[in-house]
Specification:
The protein is of the alpha/beta class. Helix content is 29%, strand content 22%.
């Protein structure tokens, strides 16, 4: 897996097991040193706090399989100064500085682990909302790869938790579909982004999720990136920001 630092004006396309493995750029004069937080029964996270007097917006990010809370934290630089960006660490370790939201190998444990991870994310998001005085209408939950899969699970299971979800190179789990199928579609704002050359989670799975959600009356903002693999691009982050600002 390649470790490539983000520059101020460019987020390079990178590849990895299930993570963009991006490191925060701290060279700018307006950059902050992220805070680390660990509270009993909540997930470990790092956070870039908001600045200025404008009402804050909370963006909670979930990393991909095999990564950690540092992975997506550098994406904070793409958001305005009044945005709080928190990057959470998944609860299940699989190696040194390597974590997962659920076991991709042992399918028998997946549903229980997805449920347990979801509970911990929900508790952490609610704690962040309380701590920073941010309402659900000003909260967005997003993730890359397995983190994107979890974002579907969280948003579709409880639309009262956040205004919208950001699914970057993810897919929709069968258990999420089953739990959602009988529900009336909520007003949850859903952003889906995927590279058409993704070999980890195919573009077809993203398109399939889009079609299923539309059939169930959800409103989707769908973006395809030509030639992009399992990665995050600068263009994609511009689209993410536009979506969030349109819906915050």
């Amino acid at each position: 897996m390649k470790n490539i630092q983000l520059l101020l004006a460019l987020l390079l396309l990178i590849s990895g097991i299930s993570s963009c493995n991006a490191q925060p750029d701290t060279s700018g004069t307006n950059k902050q040193t992220p805070k680390e937080e660990q509270v009993s029964n909540l997930l470990f996270y790092k956070i870039h706090e908001a600045r200025g007097t404008e009402a804050p917006v909370l963006v909670v990010l979930l990393h991909g399989y095999g990564s950690n809370e540092d992975d997506l934290l550098s994406l904070a630089q793409f958001f305005p100064e009044n945005y709080i960006v928190a990057s959470l660490q998944a609860p299940y370790p699989i190696g040194a500085a390597s974590f997962q939201w659920y076991d991709i190998q042992n399918t028998q444990n997946q549903q229980a682990e997805v449920t347990e991870s979801s509970k911990k994310v929900v508790a952490t998001v609610k704690e962040l909302q309380k701590k920073y005085g941010v309402s659900a209408s000003k909260t967005f939950i997003g993730g890359f790869s397995q983190g994107g899969i979890m974002s579907y699970q969280l948003g579709l299971s409880d639309a009262s938790l956040a205004k919208g979800i950001l699914v970057l190179s993810g897919r929709l789990l069968p258990m999420t579909r089953e739990a959602t199928a009988g529900k009336k579609a909520s007003e949850l704002a859903i952003f889906i982004a995927h590279g058409d050359s993704d070999k980890r989670i195919s573009f077809n799975e993203a398109n399939d999720a889009k079609q299923w959600l539309e059939q169930h009356q959800y409103s989707i903002d769908f973006h395809i990136y030509k030639g992009m693999g399992h990665a995050i691009s600068q263009e994609e982050m511009k689209d993410v920001l536009e979506f969030v600002q349109k819906n915050d």
